[in-house]
């Protein structure tokens, strides 16, 4: 087939970085009227390829066509002119600005010095009407929950008249309900004759929303399949190059002493009062729709947020600062790795000891940093947690999203804490690496670690936890064993309906 009837055609796209060949002669085509899923392991080259299409970086080799015409973008402005919009893996909105200001930013109608906000408001309102979704135009982006921020990103692309929409892991931060809404929008969008590329590690979503799926591995296209004719297992195998165990294998927990005891813990704005215990050698999962107090709970327990109520850690009150909490052996995998988990300009070596750099074995006699100890530690981390590329000298911002997450998880587990507070530990991580991280968590549990696992991914909570607490509106609605936790029971508790209220 020629290139003329296609939305987008890529031929031989190649991109080299100092340590990796990120894209290796990639051929890909996108038809009008379809959602094409793009899947592959962390670091396979998905975001790199899409940044090339969006004009954020030039390819070293290769050619592109949009709607049959040769296409060589020198900046995103060229991409926008060609009708391409992109929603990034990490949002690119200007947070202190309002939604409306973000929409017109860099594209003001009329004079470049006076933004015509009134006209923009009229256009945006009409667009939202047509799309059937709403975003408050006058609120600041930083005040919006992530689900709405993402709608702003989509609205921004459509406001610029995108006919080809690229979504790089758009659902990583969405609740299942928000993801469903996004899928309805995407289907309607392509049925009008547009086209979309959808990147996700959630293969169930890929199966649900896409027409075709292209798999890439190590920068090369492995193959393209008609999505309805494939399966989760087949996609996983194509991605990883081996069979993937989709179920977590673990023996029964052997809980020991109480490590964490929480009584009536409350923290504004959303944590209203919770009580529970976590023992050594067990994983306690917290399930619930995001925004029901989980963030406050995690931050209170790690010393990052003021709270009331009683928290005993190893029988003593929790120290007053995050640094002291950490020093006493509490590890924290934060929900937002870029904000809290990593210093993006630091190398893996530096990030691997972040928060522990002032202590032995890294800081030695006369306060000198011990380079050999630091390097050995970083080596262990990248090998055991399969951080790719294996270098310890690469700055955090040069890693793919999932590999950056592996650095955080590895650092927090390897420091041998007594308590691990893990929020969304596998967000953005590929299916093979999830398997590896789950194994590490079970291994740490079996060595006596107490784990509090907060995850928006129900299947993750179900497969890892020894006990499950369900949160709703800042309180614990119920506690279940994994055996008791059917989807229905969990769903009801997550919606705030307890067995008593039903009776
Ligand atoms: N600016 C850069 N400098 C050096 N290496 C880079 C740069 N950007 C990306 N890379 C490397 O290119 C490879 C591909 O990265 P990319 O972000 O495209 O992966 P990805 O498929 O999107 O992965 P993920 O699923 O984890 O998001 C990785 O090995 C990454 O470290
Ligand atoms: Mg990526």
Q: Examine the secondary-structure arrangement and name the CATH architecture of the largest domain.
A: 3-Layer(aba) Sandwich
CATH topology of the largest domain: Rossmann fold
Structural class: alpha/beta
Unreliable stretches: none
Radius of gyration: 24 Å
Number of strands: 20
Report mean pLDDT, rounded to a whole number: 91
Strands of the widest sheet, in order across it, are 6-7-8-3-9-10
Sheet of most strands: 6 strands, mixed
Total domain count: 2
Bin the strand percentage: 15-25%
CATH class of the largest domain: Alpha Beta
> Number of DSSP helices?
18
Distance between the termini: 63 Å
What is the overall silhouette?
A: globular
What are the distinct ligands in this entry? adenosine-5'-triphosphate, magnesium ion
Helix content: 25-40%
Query: CATH superfamily assignment of the largest domain?
Result: P-loop containing nucleotide triphosphate hydrolases
Question: Can you give a write-up of this model?
Answer:
InterPro entries: AAA+_ATPase, ABC_carbohydrate_import_ATPase, ABC_transporter-like_ATP-bd, ABC_transporter-like_CS, P-loop_NTPase. It is a peripheral membrane protein. Keywords: ATP-binding, Cell membrane, Membrane, Nucleotide-binding, Repeat, Translocase, Transport. Pfam families: ABC_tran. This is Heme ABC transporter ATP-binding protein. With 503 residues, the chain is α/β, with parallel strands linked by helices. The protein has two domains: 235 residues, P-loop containing nucleotide triphosphate hydrolases (Rossmann fold, 3-Layer(aba) Sandwich); 245 residues, P-loop containing nucleotide triphosphate hydrolases (Rossmann fold, 3-Layer(aba) Sandwich), CATH 3.40.50. The chain is 33% helix and 24% strand. It is built from 18 helices and 20 strands. It has a six-stranded mixed beta sheet, with helices on both faces. A hairpin with a 2-residue loop joins strand 19 and strand 20. The chain is globular and about 70 Å long. The model has no long low-confidence stretch (mean pLDDT 91). Bound molecules: adenosine-5'-triphosphate and magnesium ion. The site of adenosine-5'-triphosphate has 21 residues, from helix 1 and helix 14.
